[in-house]
Amino acid sequence: MQELSRRYIEYHAHAQRKIRAAAVIGVLGFPVFYLTWKYVLPQPYESMLLRGIGTVLCLALALSPWWPPRWQRYAVPFSYFTFLFSLPFFFTLMLLLNHSNSTWQMSTLAALIYVVLLYDLVNAIVVLVVGSLGAIAAYLLMTGGAPIPIGYWTTLPILLFALTAIFGLAYSDNLIAREKLKAAASLASQVAHECRTPLTGIRFEADGCERLIARLPASPARDKLAASHRRVRQHITSANSVIDLLLSNVAQHHRGSPASELHSMRQVVKQAIERYSFKPNQRELVRLDIDEDFRFRGSDLLMTHVLFNLMKNGLRAIEARGGNEHYLSISLRQGEGMNRIVVTDTGEGVPPELRNYLFIPFVSAQRPGVGTGLGLSFCRMIVESAGGTISCESEVDFGTSFTIDLPAVQPVGEDTTAV
After folding, report:
1. What is the mean pLDDT of the chain?
2. 401 sits in which H/E element
3. Given Cys at both, which of 170, 196, 264, 349 links 396, Cβ 3.0 to 4.6 Å?
4. Is 127's pLDDT higher than 90?
């Protein structure tokens, strides 16, 4: 179920208006065709009740941008149910109740095409099967167990043939998209290679500087040079990790099993705070509650970048909201089965219409021109590669809270050498 939900959300991440447009079509179509099939071109069966339910559902969905903020997170699952009822269920049921006549055969085919347009491939198949079976069950209940019209069985192969062709064409589009992704991965690999070459040269030069610094007599200047050298090495490591991160995002290499190393989350948080490039006075906004340390299995470097992204977003939201009493907090919480990291800010919050799509690539809650929409998708991939989950709670003008749940492993006090 979670995978189906993710597929549906990702499918509409960059086309949210398509859901509302389809809802508006339903609001207009249900009453118009009721009048048409009832009075202009009368059909054997019509139902004001069924069309009324469809109209109300579509109207509610069309008005979803004006729902109360706390309800808007349910707009996407509500659209899933609305289209399931309004398309395969309603049209299949009306096809059966109208003895599978030609008018409803064509209407049902049109509805099935809408399903393919509104759902990704896997969800379209699920919705068609569930909606059709539900319609058959409703027909049997409404008719007291009357036999399925023969016309339905003769129509079914034609509908299946049409759907097979549509699905085949849709799948071919997916293949083209995959080929484009492979091309992008190849280009990213070439760019990464070109970037790594100068980074390797910088590292060699830094190593040479380190040997020269070691020969200098002790002095404040030497200490400053040594500190600068350490920062250069950190920046090189960070640059390489960003390259790895970009490659994993394009090539989907993050889907493998988690790394076997165990790391202290408290140390990761401290490292992130130490290495983050704060603007003036930003460090004072960060509050830490990391006494409940825990270990996780994965990459400490990539998890540091998760915190980088969350801190950057939070501090940017605080800056956009303005004021002097805001803060960003990072807290650790131990649990029996899952340990938790919570990053909370009191910034401007995330608009309700974007909350369902935050972790989808290229979807950004920032104003136009700020951010690429890749940071939170990176965070999700890294957290999931460690076997965890990440979620978001937000309210406009109150702030945002990101929660990361990671599988509990060995207690901090145990020896980790026998991993």
Report:
1. 83
2. strand 399-407
3. 349
4. yes
